[in-house]
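ESCALATION

Customer reports they have been waiting on this structure for their group meeting. Please prioritize. Original submission:
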Amino acid sequence: MSVDEGLDHNGEYSTAENVEDFRINIAEVNRRIASAAERVGREPGEIELLPVSKTVPQERIRAAVAAGCHKLGENKVQEAFRKSDEMADLDIDWAVIGHLQSNKARDVAKFASEFQALDRLKVAAALDRRLEAAGRSLDVYVQVNTSAEESKFGMPPEELLGFLRELPQFPTLKVQGLMTLAVFSSDIDRVRTCFQRLRTLRDQAQETDPELIGSGKLSMGMSGDYEVAIEEGANCVRVGQAIFGRRALPDSYYWPENG
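Update from on-call: job pushed to the front of the queue and completed.
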């Protein structure tokens, strides 16, 4: 099961150019979120839609905000930092959802409200140091590589509990839960297995020590697989192309080699 409505006659996501376009696309994604949730007896209100605005220019982001998007996800720190500065007049919370090098922690500490790709203690320490100096905290998700693909970022599942036990030493980081990227495949069973693996890891962490994982949310699912993710327990789905339209570059450019 994957998103197919909202596609143009070539089978590609249609580009939203104005406020009404965005309202239509957002309504369709929300309809599908609700439908997926109802199939498995969940409440749609349990699921956060995080629009992903990577590569989208400022004028279209402004239209998206006017259509109701007030929290946006970005992969690349420099792009996100620039946009946050250019659109400081708007009410936007910025979530960094891509791989972070420790030398970029200073920028994240300045503007982000959330970081969804924490997978190394070096990055945790750098963020904590910068956040403490700024007198603020940051919501974080720990990224796990559930597909076992060497090209993907995220920690190996077997290292998760040990990593979570180290995070309390960084008091400015407020763990919200876990994040993953499913395998890039049209085989829904393979995709579903990645999401099931993350849910199992969350459940194991909660059973071991619920304090380690905060509210235990699961951030998983993108434009092509968010309905499957919801069926498997996602609390946050990161949807870009189904809202903004097709990008010039494939997802493989952003996930994860150049994250």
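Sent to customer with the following note: DSSP finds ten helices and eight strands in the chain.
Escalation resolved.
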